[in-house]
Specification:
- The chain is of the alpha/beta class.
- The protein folds into two domains: 145 residues, Rossmann fold, CATH 3.40.50.1970; 184 residues, Dehydroquinate synthase-like, alpha domain.
- It is 48% helix and 12% strand.
- The protein is built from 14 helices and ten strands.
- α3 crosses α4, α6 packs antiparallel against α7 and α6 packs parallel to α8.
- Keywords: Metal-binding, NAD, Oxidoreductase, Zinc.
- Its EC number is 1.1.1.6.
- It catalyses: glycerol + NAD(+) = dihydroxyacetone + NADH + H(+).
- One of its GO terms (biological process) is phospholipid biosynthetic process.
Amino acid sequence: MPLAATSTRDTPSLVRFVAPGDYLQGCGALAHLPDLTRRHAGPAWYVSDVAVASWLTPRLQALVDSALQLNTFDGEITYAAIDAMAARVPNDVGVIVGIGGGKAIDMAKGVAVAHGLPMISVPTVASNDAPTSRAYAIYDDQHRMVAVERMPANPVAVLVDIDVLIGAPVRMMSAGIGDALAKWFEADAAAQADSRNMLGATAPALARVIARAAYDTLRQDAVAALAAMRRGTPDAAFGQTVEACLLMSGLGFENGGLSVAHAMTRGLMRSRHGHGALHGEHVAYGVMVQLVLEGRDDATLADMASFLAAVGLPSSLRTMSGKTAMPQDFDDIAAASLLAPHWGNFARRVDGQCLVQALRSLESMTFHASGSLDR
């Protein structure tokens, strides 16, 4: 539950910082899973999606227990789906383990909440920072977000096996980069607006430091990390990028706050331009919108668009969907995006007309590989 806290810039107030209890990342890290699960009073219960279970189950059985089974699901993370999965959990279970992508992690969080149990995250992709946070998204059957719920505490452990993540689809990693790089701009915007973080408290200065570190790491290492994935050989750049996408990004948003970049995902999920795009691809576009609303100069916009292109991310609606944006698209995206709760983390008041103007302005720009733009 968010804490009640009041402050001004001149009055100290409650500062709150949260994080997972343990974070382990490295080649062969899955070997530590038995030790992590033995810390709890009862046996572990494993949640995964069908695709991951098909190839990871034999490896987990060899490492943990030959009788281990991954309890799988398929489809959206709805309240009904969580209830159905939670009904399958035996009474003696001591910890819920989520293994897979964002959906598997979110399902495990929902099941853990239903039973009042701790939860361990074992991501198999770095497509977003869900593994480290207490938040989990609820959708309807048409993949429209209906709520963001939260566990009472962050995962007790996050286990990141580099040997597993190096084999994930490159596009998923690109999406994680898009999700993570936004956290600096959003944490900074939230600080400028003197607003609350995701916990209802004042953001610690450390949150912005971590969010900035994520951004700097990605600007330095993300292109090389994607090249490592294509080779299938992890290196230092890949490890640093994974850490930025999972750990730094998660700590940055939960403790620093979200802003325009994530607000835009609400409209994109309902738009023909966002259909089929990944969360981090939506967020990358949202970063560009936020920069336009902040009045950034052409050099900054061109630099960001160039970086996004280098890591396979969109900087406009046409680069996201390959379709030409129509006036109704701008209106629809703006209207749905303005329903997001994150606009309070932006110092400037933004209404529908203002946002539509920003979207139109961004779409009118042509970015060149040389790092320049035409309007």
